[in-house]
Request: fold
Amino acid sequence: MDLDHVFEQAKSWVLEAGEQIRSSFDKTLNIHTKADPNDLVTNIDRDTEKFFIEKIRETFPGHRILGEEGFGDELSDLNGVVWIIDPIDGTMNFIHQQRNFAISVGIYENGVGKIGLIYDIVHDELYYAVVGLGAFLNEKKIPKLKPAIVKEAILAMNITWVLKNKRVDHKRLIPLVREVRGTRSYGSAALELVYVATGRINAYISPRLAPWDYAGGAIIVEELGGIVTNLEGGKLDMLTTSSVFAASPGLHGEILEKYLK
Ligand code: IPD
Ligand code: CA
Ligand code: CA
Ligand code: CA
Reply:
């Protein structure tokens, strides 16, 4: 893959889609539910995904696409170039707050992350990384992550996971929540991952996400020396749902050894 060319195209489409989403704020949203009454989707999520798919198919007919809203391809492997797209990550925030949501794009070649873009539309902040070339916030290079320790760390996690739930033994997470300096919850996995990348928070945990939630952010965090795995410390799966644990160097090992194992 010609990384420069693919990156330039991806960047221009992300910015264009962002502009369209911004202009939708003045219009009435069509809101629908999916798996349950709190699992929301809007016409803007769908239109944005269709916009990317049309552009990618026209410009890169050999590339395949995995998108949350299901307009892309059905994938059973990651061979070749695969775009993993979340047209709006943080749809609930988009609907209720008109902030704290982002477009997320991860571009993989034979299963290896190459290009990640997360666009915080409301703040006009584009986070991106091209593997081996560094990560940027708009045009500014993001410095490599410094090591962090639990006692001084800010951890992002949804409060649901420390209540009794069917995904994870919640008792496992309580000592960690007690020990860190502070906790936060933003409601957009993509933004929480780039907050880890920029050091605004030091760790992010979610017991259940889909590939489009983390495909873009994981590339950016890793490009800066951060570590992204599942809650067991294993490699993330880009074809099925997975738990996600992203953290600064040092901190990832400390949390894994002392709190998660
Ligand atoms: C959601 C957000 C949220 C996470 C949910 C995701 P969506 O994505 O990333 O932070 O907790 O699990 O589904 O549905 O708004 O794209
Ligand atoms: Ca969704
Ligand atoms: Ca999402
Ligand atoms: Ca989404």
